[in-house]
Specification:
The chain is α+β, with helices and mostly antiparallel strands. 43% of the residues lie in helices and 12% in strands. The protein starts with 18 loop residues before the first helix and ends with a helix.
């Protein structure tokens, strides 16, 4: 009988989750490894969501597992719905694999070793379905801020290499299907690559970059991969990259050419992000005692608040006034109050989703282009 092999728990400097960054900028790996890990509220929320997803998938597979809901700090109706959708999607893929292979293996939160290409390279796959012909990798992304694509995604490809290292000789695998499941962005992104293409990428791209990164060598390179870099605020290469905008002369000529505006647009988000990172870094340093020439630390504006809201409400009520503002609950809160089924029964016909505010994005964005008044006029003519 084919069985799953467990890998030992070990922290990886060159992790799969950070591979997008250290492949593009090898020297950043060791610099980031020296910095202290600081967990954000978003990361902790994601951890809770993954715990719930793990439970629901294992339960669907018939395993005896304990429901973690009561111990989850950030559990809410949205997380419950998202984890349900994830578990349903995983089971659909499991069933599809069973139709092609009599004994597929389903690995949940599996430690994967891809150290053949990356020194001490490890990562944890949310769900890996091993079957003849197709190896399926599914990664749950609970974040809502960034739309994540599976196409040529280094993290997913590293997970695939780790799974192949375990099962390639046991199952007749010819291709790998990798899916990013991001329910809060209505995003299910799938990318399929042949086993040969994956190994070619591992040998020609991953391995050379990992060798440089492990030694702290190679060239620094700035780009979108800087977003989660721990040294992004003080990185000189990133500063140079963003300050390239200074070469545009905003006085002569008086109006920028279309080509110049297009170049600025392509860097605008990264420039704003970089400036924000610099300001946050300088603030934290000042709070710690550093004095910046020409700058000082002051107390920001704040709003008045009740020391005790319950006591304040009681006093106002005792004086004969109503201290509460009454309004209809928002959709999320109302769904939590009624439950999803009752909500749809009572309010399904009273819900609408108005058109979103126009947003200018790169053509690589997968959302369909909006029809503008100018486009409508062209079509009429």
């Amino acid at each position: 009988m084919r069985r799953c092999l467990e890998m030992p728990d070990k922290h990886a400097v060159l992790s799969a989750s950070s591979s997008h960054r250290w492949i593009a900028c090898p020297p950043s790996a060791l610099l980031c490894a020296k910095e202290k890990d600081v967990s954000s509220e978003f990361a902790m929320q994601g951890t809770d969501a993954h715990s719930l997803c793990e439970f629901k998938v294992k339960k669907s597979l018939g395993q005896a597992v304990k429901d973690p809901t009561e111990s989850l700090t950030y559990f809410d109706e949205e997380m419950a719905d998202c984890s349900d959708m994830y578990a349903q999607y995983v089971m659909e893929q499991v069933e599809a694999s069973r139709n092609k292979c009599k004994d597929p293996i389903v690995l949940v939160e599996q430690r994967l070793d891809f150290s053949k290409w990356v020194p001490e390279g490890f990562g944890t796959g949310d769900c890996v379905i091993v079957a003849d012909e197709t190896l399926t990798i599914i990664d749950m992304k609970y974040g809502v801020g960034i739309l994540v694509s599976a196409e040529k995604n280094p993290q997913m490809m590293c997970y695939a290499l780790g799974a192949l290292a375990l099962f390639d000789g046991i199952y007749d695998i010819t291709e790998v299907s990798m899916t990013i499941f991001q329910p809060r962005r209505d995003n299910v992104s799938t990318y399929t690559i042949s086993k040969e293409e994956l190994f070619k990428w591992a040998d020609e791209v991953l391995f050379p970059a990992a060798q440089l990164a492990a030694k702290g060598e190679g060239e620094f390179k700035a780009g979108s991969h800087c977003q989660f870099c721990k040294v992004k605020a003080t990185c000189r290469k990133r500063a140079e990259y963003n300050l390239e905008l200074a070469r545009y002369d905003f006085e002569m000529p008086a109006n920028l050419e279309d080509e110049e505006i297009e170049v600025i647009l392509s860097k605008a988000d990264e420039l704003v992000s970089w400036v924000g990172d610099i300001k946050e870094y300088a603030l934290q340093q000042a709070v710690s005692g550093k004095e910046w020439i020409g700058w000082k630390l002051v107390e920001g504006r704040s709003n008045r608040r009740y020391v005790n809201e319950t006591a304040a409400a009681d006093k106002v009520q005792s004086a004969g006034y109503d201290p509460y503002a009454h309004k209809v609950l928002g959709i999320t809160a109302m769904t939590k109050l009624l439950g999803k089924t009752k909500f749809e029964e009572l309010l399904g016909g009273l819900i609408e989703k108005p058109q979103g505010k126009p947003t200018l994005v790169p053509v690589s964005d997968k959302r369909p282009a909006m029809n503008t008044a100018a486009n409508d006029f062209k079509e009429d003519n």
